[in-house]
Here is the input.
Amino acid sequence: MNPLREYNASITRRQFFGRLAGGIGTAALASLLNPGLLAQSLPAPSGVTDNDRRGALPHFVPRAKRVIYLFQNGAPSHVDLFDYKPMLRQWHGRQIPDEVVSGRRFSTMTSGQTERPVVSEISNFAQRGESGAWVSDFLPHTAAIADELCFIKSMYTEAVNHAPAITFFLTGAEMAGRPSMGAWLSYGLGSESDDLPAFVVMTSRDKEASCGQIFYDFYWGSGFLPSKLQGVKFRGSGDPVLYLSNPDGMSPQVRRGILDDIAALNELNLQDYGDPEIATRIAQYEMAYRMQTSVPELTDFSDEPQHVLAMYGPDVLRQGSYAYNCLMARRLAERGVRFIQLMHAGWDQHRNLNTQLKIQCQDTDAPSAALVKDLKQRGLLDDTLVIWGGEFGRTPFLQGKVEEYATWGRDHHPYTFTLWMAGGGVKPGLSYGASDEFGFNAVENKVHVHDFQATVLHLLGLDHERLTFKHQGRRYRLTDVHGHVVKAVLA
Here is the structure.
């Protein structure tokens, strides 16, 4: 790629006219200066732009090399799973105090609800391990590894509906169109694998299909970053990636020859136009060719010991299940994939809290804990950051009426909720931050979404204020203009 052509193609009209008159003045100034005093800047390598060079290397020594993000779509109920509040039992069935909810907005499902009765947790809590972290009986496997986990119990966000809230967590903005976290990390750190993408996505949902969550492609999109950085979605049935297999009658040698010819034609176009999407096309053809060998080996679980398969639970061999995806995540991490994003829908209990929450925990608890244990026993947990959490929490008050037990539910709650992290340089056995006595507002060591994102980047050796990309005349970053590293959770 010709860097000058790419620069000229990306310059805006405003920049062009703004700089047009600066040439004469610049030349005059240069003639008055001693050329020997001017430092010589190193040119960018061929085909590498200034944007690319900004993210080429870690800014400092990283604590983690990769991320596995277990995103729980629909928002797990913090007050039923992690944030034990005896006050809820004392106030069960009574109206939550007005001063607690004053000025707060909720989704349309309860915004017009005149009565907001407090409902106690529907599970039993206990303190776990030496750390004494509170974890529900609904999550026995997670409870067993509590001393490996770093709980953040004072998360808060700004969105009250699913898609904007998920987009905010994954891209730093509520509106779709920004690069996702995985794309930012691929841009900043590149790939450790020659045979697999740097950023892989897998999705699953509850077996009862009780939750109508949709997986939008922009949850793993590259936004204005080069499209080669977007997540590659592995399918939940059939071939994980379409069109990897050669058609009948085509040998690998013939396929290699065709790709070489296509690449040569694309290189000519790249030299003529400098369009980065042409470079993406070349790179993706090559990656697809290498994945023809790497993906079948990746998805072959025949080499997994039986005790490991049992640890992930009975669904581990069912392609497209959460358990299957968790084991795949470990295998991807072993093979150098930088960012592995699992998204599991089913946590949106508006009218089925008393039935579906426990089922959802049964489906996800063992695989999540098994992943942490599996990484640790293989020596991968120290440099792999595992994240578990949703886009917000659930209300301490009831959606519906107390007497209608069968349809109990909790609405969306952005004002405090819990997520946990493990490995990758975070403190194990820590419960950081706290909510008020109702589990309604974060009141101690509050952690905003942008703070969380800044901390994740920091653990990977990236300064969130310096990892930027110039687009439409300004430099963008994952954390927008906000965010602080939560140093208290760092090991």
Remarks:
- The longest strand covers residues 66-73.
- The domain at 52-240+299-489 is CATH 3.40.720 (Alkaline Phosphatase, subunit A).
